[in-house]
Design brief:
By secondary structure, the protein is an alpha+beta fold. Helix content is about 20%, strand content about 30%. It starts with 16 loop residues before the first helix and ends in a 6-residue tail after the last strand.
Amino acid sequence: MAGFVEPARPATPWPGLTAAVVHYLDAPDRLSPAFRDDVHVGDVKLTASALADLDHTCQVIVRDDGGEPLDDVRSTARLGVNVWAPSENIADRLAAAVRRALDAMTGGRPVLACTASRPIPIDGEVEPLRYLTADLIIFTNSPHL
């Protein structure tokens, strides 16, 4: 009697939702040209010295906050996005650029729809911080996730 044989997997596992969104936002043409060379996009906040080593002054950090299945092929997903910058004005402009980029994800694979919230200022941080969320509908079994 033959046992269960696990299907072959790709040599490199597909990235998760956070990695896919980080890759999307980090593309050279995604954010405003004013931020192209000055923003670290990732899923972990860098220390000030690590950020300086990269010659960046801004950070966009993406976090997957979970979601619910809609049916066999679609799920909801919620992302939390923190935007740090050296000034209030730059934080506002960068957060607005991130919001526009997230809203533009709609209509392809793996993202069917995306609605990003209005960025809000978060007090109590050393550097200006803006926070926003993005609600997505994604293909659950997409090879892009």
